[in-house]
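Example record for the data management plan.
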Amino acid sequence: MGDACPWAEILGVDLSPIQPRMVPPNVSFQVDDIEDDWAYDAPFDYIHCRYLASAILDWPRLVRQAFENTSPGGWVEFQDFDFKYYSVDGSLNEDTPLMKWDNYMIDACEVSGRDGCPGPKLKGLIENAGFENVTEKIYPFPIGMWPKDEKLKQMGAYNLFQRLEGLEGISLGLFTRFLYWSRDEVLVFLTAVRKDLKNPHIHPCYNL
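Corresponding structural encoding:
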């Protein structure tokens, strides 16, 4: 974004100090909690929020603060998930460990007070905050290399890699803190989930 818009001043905000050091001169980062009160010096022409599923306690307040900090004529963009897995060919059913894992994750997010499926609600939230000219686009996001379309196949491969690599990390906290599983119970269950993820005959997908 900094390279594409050298005339713009770009601020990135994240809860964790994971920002790169080598960035264009018009890009800066700030470690902050976007659920706190926004206290920026000036409104923004463009606000982009992405992948906050299971992270936000008060979505209406977040979107309202974005509205209050957008310049007249400015734009906001929210990108997020509907983490409810499905398959268009019936290869993923409720009895599979992968589907059970997905349902457990959504339940744990709900118990924690943080929505695991904010995607379908974004349009209504944005309109209710006062934004006009709202457009919603929904994209299927495959997991695995099963799609015939080459672009979707590549997306699915990346998505499978990140799901396998992050499965334990994203599961342990939610399962142990909010569903009261033991650590060993979670790890044993994830073994079956990984088998489903690697099974070429199961074609999971969710929406972005």
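Summary line stored alongside the record: DSSP finds five helices and seven strands in the chain.
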